[in-house]
Every structure is written in C-alpha cells, then in structure tokens.
Write a structure and sequence with these properties.
This protein has helices spanning 10-102, 174-184, 210-223, 236-247, 269-288, 293-309, 338-347, 363-366, 368-390, 394-409, 411-425, 427-441, 443-457, 459-475, and strands at 112-120, 126-134, 159-163, 189-193, 229-234, 252-258, 326-331, 352-356. The chain has 486 residues and is of the alpha/beta class. The protein has 3 domains: 112-263 and 314-390, Rossmann fold; 266-311; 394-475, no CATH class. An 8-stranded mixed sheet has the order 1-2-4-3-5-6-7-8, sandwiched between helices. Residues 105-109, 140-157 and 477-486 have low confidence and may be disordered.
Length: 486
C-alpha cells in the first residue's frame, strides 16, 4: 500500500535545519576541545620531560660535587696523616735531642751562676736584676781592663742584656741562659733586669711608660759599667729594645727583637680587642676601689695594660737609623701580624727575618731549642764577618799578589797574559774559576777590584774588552755575564 506523500510545512523544515546546525557546531566544539586537550597534554609531557632532564642534570652535578668533596676529604685526610707523621718525627727528634742533651756529662754541661743585684733610681725605686756568669768564669777583678765593659775588639767577653715582656720577669729567659753560656765560653756575662712592678723590682711612684723602663735599663748598664752589649728584647721588651737602639746607638752592637710591634694596631684584632676591654675595665675598677688594696691592684694591672694599648709609637721610617746587625724573630702563629713583623725587618737596613714554623708569640719559651739555634746561628754569622774584616783571608792574599804582579809586569802585559790564560784554560773553565773567585772574595770586594781594573786599563780599553766578550757570548748563544755597553 503506498502512503501518500504529504508535503512538510515550513516550521518543521526550519527545526530540522536548526538541529543539523547544532549537531555540526557540537561536533566542532568537541573537536576543538579534543585538540586543545591533546595540545595541553603535549605541553605537559614536554614540561615533564624538561623537568626530568633538569633533575637528572642536578643529580649529575650533585654526584660530581659529592665526588669532588670526597676527593678533597681524602686529600685532606692524607695531608693530615702526613702532618701527623711529620709531627711525630719532629717529636721523636726533639725527644732524641733532649735525651742526648740529658746524657751529657757534668763537665760538658754549662752551669750559669745567678747573682741578684740592685740599683736605686733617683725617685727611690729599687730596680733589681740578675747577673749570670759561668761557674768556671774568671772574676771581674782578674779580667783584663778591656774586658770589664764588654767593648774589647776581639769580643772574647761578650755581654748580653735581656729585657722580658709585659707580664714576665727575668726568669722567662731560663731557656736561653745556658745556651748562650755554652756558645760564648767562660767569659760571657748576661744581665737580665726585672722591669718596674714585676719580678723583684719595686713599682715606683711614677706611672709606667716605656721611656721610664728604658732609662732603668740604661741605669743597670751604667751600674755594671757596660759600654756596649748585645740587646735581646721579647714582646714589650722588644719594643723597648728598638727605642733604646734608636736613642742610644753607641751603647749597643747587636739587636735581637722577638715578637715586637711599632704601634698597638700591629697586634692582631682578636688579641688586641680583649686587651683594650681589660684596660678600660681595670681603669674603672681602680677608680671605684680607690684608696683600698683592690684599687692598688687594679691600678698596677691597668698600668701594665696601658703599655700594650697606648704604646709604643715608633715610625717605620725611623728604623732606617738602626745601623747594627739586627735579627727579627716571630712565631708563625704570633699575636703580632705577620705583615707588621715583615715591615719591621724591611725597615731596618740589613735586618734578618726569622719566622719559626709552628711557633706562637711565646716561641722563646715554648720552643727554646729552635729559638736558640736561630739566635746563635745569627751571632755566629756576625762573628764570621768580623773575623773576615779583621784577619785577611787567603783569597785577599792572592789579590794582593795579583796587584803586585800587575805593577811589575805592566798593565798591558798583565792583560795579555790574562787573555792567554783564558784561551789556554778554555772559556768555560776560566769562567768557573772567575765565579769561584767572586764567591771566595765576596761580591763587594770583587766589584771593587773590577772597578780598579777598569781605572787602571782605562775606560775606553775596558769597554772595548767587555764589548768583545758580549759579542763572543751572543755568537755562541751563551748567557753573557758582562754588562751591556750602550
């Protein structure tokens, strides 16, 4: 049966079209949402991959850092092990040296006899000091006249004046007395005063200053009739020693400064700040307890602290006026700044700087053997120089002989003979011999002799000979030992 074909009305047709449009739009929205979701997922995955890569990089860096730290720890452990071994070795050597020293016979051991003396100052203060001489020494009355004041030309009777530090007394040099007696023999004299307010000396009515303490030292020297001496000062005593040598240059022939400073800021801050605080604390307490025994005690303590807080005041430029052999000693871990100690040594012409490894400010008491080796080694060098100046060496005799030959032969003949010797010996052998001569004569003597040769030959002839030597050296690609002639 065929149904009749009814025509659709307009309203139904519009609804159908609208639904179709809605379905199409819905489908488009879903497609867009799907694409957007996929895009977000891709971005998220990319972000996760980047973060994962960053985490791996950080882990890799941390592993490398940890490996480096582990390596550093291993190296540090190795260094500490080596240091421990070296310390043990040094302790063993020290122990062996101590045993060896203890095993000496009584005849080999020097015993220094101590005598306490005193001198009264104009203000009534009694300054006491210790004099040390060897038990086998000759008495002062039996000594020749030139030996009584320690100024004999041959220095067979050296005199030492030792000045202690701020809170010490003359006993702080107990580790050095016997060592000096061993080295210098039976005629050595050592004077170790106790500064005011310390040891056996009186406090005195005047406030403590370095100037007053220095005058006390000079008074002790005058009382003992000491014309010249070797001066050794530790800490505040070293500051006094520097000022004494500047004020009385004719009274001292050698200076040894231990742990000294030119001004208060030369002390490291971690040591100086507590000292400054103690200074003001004791100053307040001395005024609070004025007239009581506690006030006197705080006042004395305050005066000693003042020497470290307000003094010394030495200009580095003034140290160039020190013209005697000088040794500057400090510990590696000294309370005086290292650059300040170097400034002192650099400011004194010809001064020798000795930094003792592992030593503190009190290296003189903590490491007496190492300290004594440095001091005695320095004094030996001075003695050797004095002996060379006084007694002509074999080389100087040779120089005199050469000068005689030169006069007898004539300058030109002498020069020709020298050139023949150079050719016959060979250039290298001749040069080595010249270097040996220079070392044996000493650089200054060698230079003076060369200047004399230049004057005798004539400047033009000398420069011509030097130029020829330069050309020969350049031709043979050798380092030229002669100065260039421009």
């Amino acid at each position: 049966m065929i149904l009749p074909d009814f025509p659709l009305n307009d309203a139904e047709d519009r609804n159908r079209g609208k639904r179709q449009k809605n379905r199409t739009e819905e489908k488009g929205r879903k497609t867009e949402q799907k694409k957007k979701a996929e895009k977000q997922n891709r971005r998220k995955r990319q972000k996760n991959r980047t973060e994962e890569k960053g985490r791996k990089t950080e882990q890799k860096k941390s592993r490398k850092t940890e490996q480096k730290r582990q390596k550093d720890r291993t190296e540090e452990k190795g260094r500490k092990t080596e240091q421990k071994k070296s310390r043990k070795t040094e302790q063993k050597r020290q122990k062996d040296r101590t045993k060896e020293k203890a095993g000496r016979t009584e005849q080999e051991t020097t015993m220094m006899k101590e005598t306490i003396r005193s001198v009264r100052r104009p203000d009534g203060t009694m300054i006491r000091y210790a004099e040390y001489v060897r038990e086998d020494s000759i008495s002062a009355s039996d000594r020749p006249e030139g030996l009584k004041d320690g100024t004999a030309a041959e220095r067979i009777c050296p005199v030492f004046v030792l000045i202690h530090g701020n809170a010490e007394d003359h006993t702080s040099f107990s580790g050095q007395i016997n060592a000096l007696g061993d080295h210098f023999g039976k005629d050595v004299r050592i004077i170790a005063p106790d500064c005011r307010g310390r040891g056996l000396s009186d406090q005195g009515p005047a406030p403590l200053t370095l100037r007053i303490l220095e005058e006390d030292v000079i008074a002790v020297m005058d009382a003992e009739k000491i014309g010249k001496c070797c001066l050794l000062g530790f800490s505040d005593g070293g500051n006094m020693a520097l000022e004494l040598v500047l004020r009385y240059p004719d009274r001292f022939e050698t200076l040894i400064s231990v742990g000294s400073n030119l001004y208060p800021s030369g002390v490291a801050a971690k040591y100086q700040i507590p000292t400054v605080l103690d200074y003001y604390r004791t100053k307040i307490l001395s005024s609070v307890y004025k007239g009581r025994p506690e006030g006197l005690r705080y006042d004395r303590e305050n005066q000693l602290l003042r020497l470290m807080v307000k003094e010394p005041s030495i200009s580095p430029g003034s140290l160039k006026n020190i013209r005697i052999p000088t040794l500057v000693i400090a510990g590696e871990n000294d309370m005086i700044k290292g650059r300040h100690t170097r400034l002192i040594a650099d400011s004194i012409p010809g001064a020798v700087l000795e930094i003792i490894p592992g030593g503190s400010h009190f290296v003189m008491m903590e490491m007496p053997e190492t300290f004594n080796e440095a001091v005695i080694g320095f004094l030996k060098k001075i003695e050797d120089k004095q002996a060379k100046r006084k007694y002509p060496s074999v080389q100087r005799a040779k120089i005199a002989e050469t000068e005689t030959e030169k006069k007898n032969e004539g300058k030109e003949e002498w020069r020709k003979r020298r050139m023949k010797e150079k050719k016959s010996e060979g250039k290298e052998e001749w040069r080595k011999r010249r270097v040996k001569e220079k070392k044996s004569e000493g650089k200054e003597e060698w230079r003076k002799r060369r200047v004399k040769e230049k004057k005798n030959e004539g400047k033009e002839e000398w420069e011509k000979r030097v130029t020829e030597n330069n050309k020969t050296c350049v031709k043979n690609n050798e380092k030229c030992r002669w100065r260039e002639i421009k």
